[in-house]
Amino acid sequence: MMNKKKSVDLRGLSDVLWSFRREFTVVGVFSMVVNLLMLTPTLYMLQVYDRVMVSRSYLTLVVVSLLALFLFGVMAFAEWARSILLVRTGVKLDQALSQRVFKASFLSYLNPSETAPSKAFGDLTVMRQFMTGNGVFAFFDVPWIPIYLAVLFMLHPWLGVVAMVFAVVQSLIAFQGHAATKEAQTQTAKAQADAQNFLQSKLRNVEVLSAMGMLGSLYQRWQAKQHKALMLSGVSQQKSGMVSAVSKFVRYAQQSMSLAVGAWLVTRGEISPGAMIAANVMMGRALAPIDLLVATWPQFLSSKDAYERLQSLLGFQHAGREKTMTQAPLGNLQVDQLVVKVAGRDKPVLDGVSFMALPGTVTVVLGPSGCGKSTLARSMLGIWPGYEGRILLDEQPIEQWTRESLGQHVGYLPQDIELFDGTIAENIARIGEVDSDKVIEAAQAAGLHQMILRFPQGYDSRVGQGGAFLSGGQRQRIGLARALYGNPMLVVLDEPNANLDDEGEAALMKAVQLIRSQGKTVVLISHRPGVIQVADRLVILQDGKLVASGPRDGVLEALKKQQETAAAAALPAA
Q: Please, what CATH class does the domain formed by 333-573 belong to?
């Protein structure tokens, strides 16, 4: 069962949809039964008006009525069965894709060019609802229109001609209506999303907004965006209303004109009154799929857009990340000619960076803010969406390993600490099953154990949403303990002392020395020169490029000589 699930997860979105072809084939069969039995009212009226009313046979009326009721029952069962089947198919589709969409949504946040990965599950819901709604029935029913038209032609050629004319007119209205409203609806949706995203993004900074009286200015900016969205929505609704009014006019005209043509043929003696009424019902049934297609066309377009976004989002996941790491790595990390680019930025964030980090050593990466240090940290861990060059862990490309198997051997303390709503123990245990011994060991390694015991409920104290119940230094130290949980072989610390006081920084230095003594590979990223004291190797970055790399003393000596040379060269000019 697990192997089957894994094989589904590795397929593309189109392949997953294709795997449900059997279910859609069965839905097609039920749709064929439904559409064939849709001829029942026409045949029943012909029998009643042309046979029963002429012969005045009650037995014939009873038999025909019972047969019609039976066929209606079969038709209702077929409609119910195809609806149930589509609902179950939608559930299976969600089960097949939910895990991949969940993971891809989180991974895509690492891509600065990705704007709305949070909509992924909304897109999946849109697809599922379309697959289980009337929109799919419309596509299954449309191929039966020629059959209904053929029946009308059999009743009389003029009835078939009238039906074809109205079918063409309704199709043109649908096409032109879509063309007229598409741009307006797109602009409206974009403006509404812009206003909503603007407000949601500012709610995260409510403390600053309230403290400095910025709500008035914020309201004016939001009001401008909201007004634009309302104006565009009004234009879109006006165009949609016009298309809807014209479509209703055509439908009402079709009902009346089909009766008029039928009555004209009856007066000429070319068809019977029963055929006239049956033709009116049949013409309505022949054009019903077009009406349904017009009504569900916006949902189809939304589903199509959702499919394309999901296809793109799922394609974002790193290709080839299929191998499972079965044993702990040694921790030999090699970065070779790393180049990282960001969409919309001409200059690379990192350009040709190469260095090594070895087990039992601390590699300190130094550089000013904005030189690419955090990007380097993400790249080393294989979570940056794309780069050029090589990142090797034990001489193997780090991007080949699955996140789950690699993650348990890696510790990462990001620059922005994000804790989860739960207990301290759950956060240190990485929101997995809490192993008390490992949690305490990680807390002790981070110099956090005694501080946690001072909390009212100790390790069972809740941190609040995003760690709201803790100070910045406490969040950072819990994040450090989380990075050390499970004794990972590779530990990457990005600005770990940014929010620490003297006691916290001393505990950090002690933790780094402890990890090094255990033979682990430590990469410590900072812009503070004070961390050099624990460094075995130094990597100096400047404006995305490597300035120096190697053993600490050698790098410091080389930098000192460069500074002396530069100072000596500047003396004559002075």
A: alpha beta
